Structure formats: structure tokens, C-alpha cells
Amino acid sequence: MNNIFSRDRLISEVKQFLLLAVPLAAAQLAQSATGFVDTVMMGWLGSQTIASGGLGSAIFTFLIFITTGVVSAVSPLAAQAYGAGQPEQVGKIVRQGLGISVFLGIPIVIVLWYGETVLLLLGQNPDAAALAATYLRAIAWGFIPALGFAVLKSFLSALSQPQIVMITVVLGTLLNITANYVLMFGKLGLPALGLAGIGWASTLSLWSMFIALFIYIYSQHQFKIYRIFHNSFSYTLTPENRRIVGEIFQLGLPIGGLIAMEAGLFTVVTFLIGQLGTISLAAHQIALQTSAMSFQIALGISLATTIRVGQLAGEQDSAGVRLAGYVGMSLGAFSMGMAGIIFWLLPKSVISLYLDIKNPSNENVVNLAVQLLVVAAIFQIVDGVQVNAAGALRGLKDTRIPMLIGIFAYWGVGLSTGYILGIWLEYGAIGLWWGLAIGLASAAIVLTWRFRIVQSITNLNQISD
């Protein structure tokens, strides 16, 4: 333990970590670029469209985050089976993950189809809800392939082959940008679909990425041994399959729950701000989408943190587990810190990606968005720490307590503080965003402490063994 942070060991771990983290972070960044590009192009259609599209995007993103979290349990389970030299078990895990994707996806597609009703029940403006519904009905058809893509991505990542995922996501994003333009404005002889066109473009992109990974895995000889698509169309819940499904849900539900706690915080804040008016909602959507872009890098790093911690835990290398966890948290904080500097120093340059900042009609939105980006700059580092602390705990199969920590930090601390500042004390969107910052800081502190405790217990257990 004394040489855990020796220079050679640290450099070796950082190198191995980056081999996983760079393509995974790039894939996350490119994948989130779909939402970023959608928001930018919504702005081309006006403030009302970006506000309504933001509501639709908030619902879709919230639901995809939760369900992706559940099926992401495929990654550590497949990685363990891979490390144990059990390729057939890997295939079974991935097949059950694909089955769960369909099981979870069908009811959510129905919810998205009736998105207007959901928004009205949440107290949103009827005109905004009606416009958002055109987006939700279009993008709903991409939900199930998005989950399927997440499963195949987890499989490739577990095998330390994330490069093809990065390439696929980049190409899918380029397709989304092109399709947005064509379908929004009715190019190539197609009708102009406006906001609905953005939803259809995302659906096309999500299907294309899933099919691309499917074809790649199916066609490559190196993956034949895993028999992922063996008997895929004669799905049966044998006792073995039921056990695997149980493991995925046992590990994945708390992961999805933790993601739901954080995503739910941002979603509820979006709805609260939606009640403050179009200006507040448009500014919030700009700041939120920008923060989400930087967060994807930290999220990609956290995926690598889970894999590295899990691999080293499987090797019973407690010193390596501790080092990998702290390397992940440090890289997450560094990446988010760089983004925070940009938000702080160049807020109007960032906002200009969404709106014409020289247009007088956008002045109020721009001014408020600048203030929100300053708050976002402040909480970037703690956001990077907390997501990677959670990733390290997933590598140790510790998911239930982190979910409870999320409930306490995001809702008990973050939302309560934001509601007091934003609604009771009438600081509006600024107050609600300060609540976000305080909630994320609380999560970073408690999750880091939890990793230290769990890692120490694991170390003691290994010593006693």
C-alpha cells in the first residue's frame, strides 16, 4: 500500500485509464452532441421553439438516462465474465440486456407518444406542450434502438474495444446534423417539418447507430465465440436467463435510480423554470444543454472508472482499485474544470451557438443565460468528482447506497435549496441553479467518502481471506 501512488504505478494506471477513457468520453460527447445540435437548430426556429423543444428534450433525456443506467449493468457483468474466460456467459448477459431494452422501451414509447398530456399534467403552457408533442412523437421511435445501442456499447467496452463505438457515434451525429437540416426546412423535396423534423432526425440517427454496431459485431469473426445473436429470435426465460436478468436488474436498477435522482433534479428544475416564462426557460435550456455537453466527457471517464475499478477488484488488487478510483475522479474534475473556465470567461461566445446575441429580441434571454453559465462554471468540478465517485463504486458493485446518497444530495439538499432560493425568495432561475450547485457538491463529498469506506472494507476482507 505504501507505493500506491508511486510515480511508475501512477503513470501506468493513467495510461491504461486513458486508453479506455478517451474513446468512451469521445463517444459520450459525440452522442450528447445529438441533443446539443438539436437545441442549436431549435434556436434557428425561434425562442418559442427552443423553449418547447427543451421541454420535450427534458422528458426524453430523463427517461433515456434512467433506462440506459439499468442496461449499463451489462458492462461490469460482461467484463467479469470476460475476465473469467467465460465467453458463452458474456453472450447470455448481452442477450438478456437486449431483451430488457425491449421490455423497458415499449411502455416508455407509449408515454412519449402521449407527451402532451404529460406536460399539461405538469402545469406547462398548452401551446408549448402541443409543440413539444410533435418532437416527442417523432423521437419516440428511436427510444428502443437507443437502449439496444447502449447494451452493445457496454459489451464492446467490457472487452476494452471502445474505439468502434466512438466512430459509430461520430458518424451518427453527422447524420443527425444533416437530417436535421433537411427535415426542418424541407430540403431535397421533402416537407418542412420544423421541430418534428428534429425529432425524426434523431430517430434516424439512433437507429443507424444501433444497426451499425449490430452489423459490426455480427460480421466480425472475433465475436463469434460470444454467440450474442444465437437464438436471439427465440427468446426464452430459462432458469439461467432468469438469474442473469435478476443480476442485471439488481445491479442496474440502483444505477438507474441514481441517474434518475440527478436527471430528475434537472428535469424538475426545468419544469419549475417553465412556470417562470419563456425567457427563463429558453435561457435555462441553453445553459443546461451546454452543461450537459461538458458533463458527457466526465460521464465517459466514469465509464472507464467503472471498468478499471472492476477489473482491478477482480484481480484482488486493492491498491490498484484505490488508485483507479482517484485517478478517475481527478480526470473527471480536470475535464470539467476546463469547461468551467470556458463558461466563466466566454459565456456570450457559448450562447451565440444557440441564438443571435445581436438581435435585440434575444437580449433578455442572453443576459439571463450568461448568469446561469457563471453558476454552471462554479459547479463543474464537483459534478466531475461526483459522477466518477459513483462510477468507482459501480466497479465495486456498490449501487444501492449511492442511490440513497443521490436522493439525499440531489433532492433533499439540491432541490430544497433551489426551491427556497428560486421560488420562495424569488431569485428565479438563478436561485434554482444555485440549488443545483449545492446538491452536486453534497453528492461529490458523500460519494467520495463512500468510495473510501467501501474500498477500505474490501481491502480488509482480502487481507482476512
Task: Give the low-confidence spans.
Answer: none
Q: Note the run of SSEs as H and E.
A: HHHHHHHHHHHHHHHH
Query: Pairing-aware structural class of the strands and helices?
Result: mainly alpha
Our Rg estimate from Cα atoms comes to 22 Å
How many strand elements? 0
Describe it for me?
It is globular and about 60 Å long. The chain has 16 helices and no strands. Helix 4 runs parallel beside helix 10 and helix 7 runs parallel beside helix 9. Helices cover 83% and strands 0% of the residues. The model has no long low-confidence stretch (mean pLDDT 86). The protein has one domain (7-464). The protein has helices at 7-44, 47-71, 74-83, 87-113, 115-121, 126-139, 143-158, 163-185, 195-219, 239-274, 278-314, 318-345, 347-351, 363-395, 400-424, 428-464. It is mostly helical.
